[in-house]
Amino acid sequence: MALIVQKYGGTSVGTLERIENVAEKLIGWRERGHQMVVVVSAMSGETDRLIGLAKGITPRPNPRELDVLLATGEQVTIALLCIALEKRGCPARSYTGSQVRILTDNAFNKARIQAIEAAAMQADLDAGRIVVVAGFQGVDEDGNITTLGRGGSDTTGVALAAALKADECQIYTDVDGVYTTDPRVVSEARRLDRITFEEMLEMASAGSKVLQIRSVEFAGKHNVPLRVLSTFQEGQGTLITFEEALEAEQMEKALISGIAFNRDEAKLTILGVPDRPGIAYSILGPVADANIEVDMIIQNIGRDGTTDFTFTVHRNDYERALDILRDQASRLGAREVAGDNKIAKISLVGIGMRSHAGVASKMFQVLAKESINIRMISTSEIKISVVVDEKYLELGVRALHEAFELDKAA
Ligand code: ASP
Ligand code: MG
User: Fold this and answer.
1) 189 phi and psi, to 5 degrees?
2) Which atom of ligand 1 is nearest to the CA of 10?
């Protein structure tokens, strides 16, 4: 008998029929002797619809109230799934985030989980019930409803698996695993049987939308075996595992495991800021204080006592970041602030990169051959990212996928 946490995404619970299908699957798992905890997302499109309602009133809804609104999406699906389970004679109980007491910090719209009370869920499991938990939501110390950011149900799943010491966390979605890149962009993209946490983390941070990045961080940190599978297709999916486990199985390390991309970025530049200690802090400090995540950062070599400073943020945060930057620019006596929200980022990811030189130069060569101008470059040990004009995104990804032969099994 295993304790398994499964998470079903919005498409998997997008209609009543699909919710009933999930109920059937869960009963199958339970009949095979497993204890089941299920995390569900809102029905597909629901979170967007709710955001649309709020934005129909004001472009910047109050974050606390937005969370009260968004949390309703998942509350609908937990109840419907339990109703479907009970109809089939299977005891089940639903929990909202605050009923579990998934304690988070108070950063509305992107809260972080701090603690989970497992006792009530464990008691339900021991009594033979299926436990159904609303994804994406929690409660802060003061009892305010919080949400975990888009895709946050993945993190709920992983966090519950960690808290309950589950044997595996299975993320059911509409794709059958993690691919070398998005198959909608490159039809030759291939499903990976395994990928390391490190690579998955880089893929997620670089824009691969299969899993929310925090869920991968959380799983890596707490040693939660994580598997991505399809709700609609049988299969083993993709196991996200440790490098040591791959080595133990003597798996060949691919040079490049995948290509991630992200068109949700925007870049901001502050030109002609005084080149002196503390400048990076005075630019990025207020951005961080506004809870805006910064991705790439580039500071140019100083000339004549001034320098230029460029960074990227999520496109949704562009206007706010621009306001902050303009403010700082006048305070610091900078020459100018410029921005571009029609950019995209392409990233090559692979642990094999560590022991192979020449990946970056090959990447640049491939892009040059397609006449794609590179606007920014950043690298880590196992990732190389470039920012290009958004209109070249697909072309760049296809060319790189082919050049690095990702369509062929390693
Ligand atoms: N329903 C939320 C969203 O669409 C959370 C999730 O599905 O993971 O982002
Ligand atoms: Mg998702």
Assistant:
1) -55, 145
2) 7
